[in-house]
Amino acid sequence: MTKSQALALARALNLQPTDVAGFNAVPATHAENAQEQALTRQLETCAGGAGKAHKLAEAKSDEFKRQAKGLPVEVSSTVAVEQSRAYAERDLRAIRSRRGRQCIVQLVDAAFKGKKLGGASIGAGSIREGSPPAAGTNGSFGLRLTLPISAPGITVKAYFDFLGFAHGPEEVTLQSIGVGEPFPAATQEHLFRVLVGRASSHPLP
Questions:
Q1: What pLDDT score does 110 carry?
Q2: Is 41 helix (H, G, I), strand (E, B) or coil?
Q3: pTM of this prediction?
Q4: In the Cβ-directed half-sphere of 46, how many Cα atoms lie within 13 Å?
Q5: Reduced to 3 states, what is the DSSP secondary structure of residue 174?
Q6: Which residue ranges make up each domain of the chain?
Q7: Cβ 76 vs Cβ 26: under 8 Å
């Protein structure tokens, strides 16, 4: 597979506006800054992932946003195409490992330590894992990272969910954010099934 074919595949597998009814689509214009790139490399090294050198292409969907009970919720997807199935499976093993989960919490805590978010302070994160159904794939993972956000007189929790799977050389991840309460489970499960079905039915170049 060429890099251009891999990029076209990644874009085709991502969430589309028609998949996410009732949400506002915002183009994903954010590019990783130097600190974020360094954290990504540290995570790959810490967890034992394949690393960027073996990645043919990566694409992100729009960010789909709306308000729920006056608080923001957001969902998006990311698709990476590795040089081979073996590299995708290596990344899957890394993120499902205990070491991988510990690395995520450590690096997130380090990234937010001492920082303020609109005047609020961010506490230490915690993580939970699961394995969402993903028939026809090489395997799946589910992670929920919870961060307490405190301002004078109030503390709320922000929930960052990552549901993903590997399919051949493809790595597909559904990311969602909920503040005050997690992203709606039924919507999350539906969108994950959409991504699994799309990857399973889409032929490789």
A1: 77
A2: helix
A3: 0.89
A4: 18
A5: strand
A6: 3-28+53-83+116-201
A7: no
